[in-house]
Amino acid sequence: MRMLKLKRDFFMQPTLTVAQELLGKVINFKDYHIQITETEAYLGDNDAACHASRGITKRTQVMFGQAGFSYVYFIYGMYHCLNFVTEPKGTAAAVLIRGGIDLKSKLNLNGPGKLCRFLGITKDEHNALDIINHEQFFVYDLGMKPTFIQTPRIGIKVATDKPWRFLVKD
DNA sequence: GAATAGATCCGC
DNA sequence: CGGATCTATTCA
Questions:
Q1: Collapsed DSSP state (helix, strand, coil) of residue A3
Q2: A51 Cβ within 7 A of any nucleic strand B atom
Q3: Strand B contact with A152 (CB < 7 A)
Q4: A57, A68, A111, A170: which has the highest count of C-beta atoms within 10 A?
Q5: Is the Cβ atom of A49 within 7 Å of strand B at any atom?
């Protein structure tokens, strides 16, 4: 099985491209291997649904940084959501990991909050990590190209006309 | 300082 | 549907 660790070049691509290409990739987090089945693209420029659309804050500053970093935010007082930053420094954009499959337990982690709870990802410990140069937290490619479908994004109230959600066809 | 809404999930 | 209860924005 081919196991190719993604380089920063991958995340430097346009965000919509990265969101599509991430499907079928595997997140290695400590001893967990999560195959990504669902992503959403968030573009800071002209995307009202993006946290960074109204300027830089302490929470969103990571999205303005370099591609290939993790962006973990805390929401609703209970759940964390994992994103990967895309685009060069100065451009706020990220891909939200909405769902995946744990390759060991075969659990279907359908939902960003669920996924992060399973992995034990927290904003305090795992935000703004460089996943290109990290021992226990990175993404690798198995060389597979799953067929996917494209739908409007979920759980937001604005910009729902943008079909920037991608999920692997079952 | 207070009020409110939000990229969520679970239990009743 | 309501609860959990953090973060950022808006209003006073």
A1: coil
A2: yes
A3: no
A4: A68
A5: yes
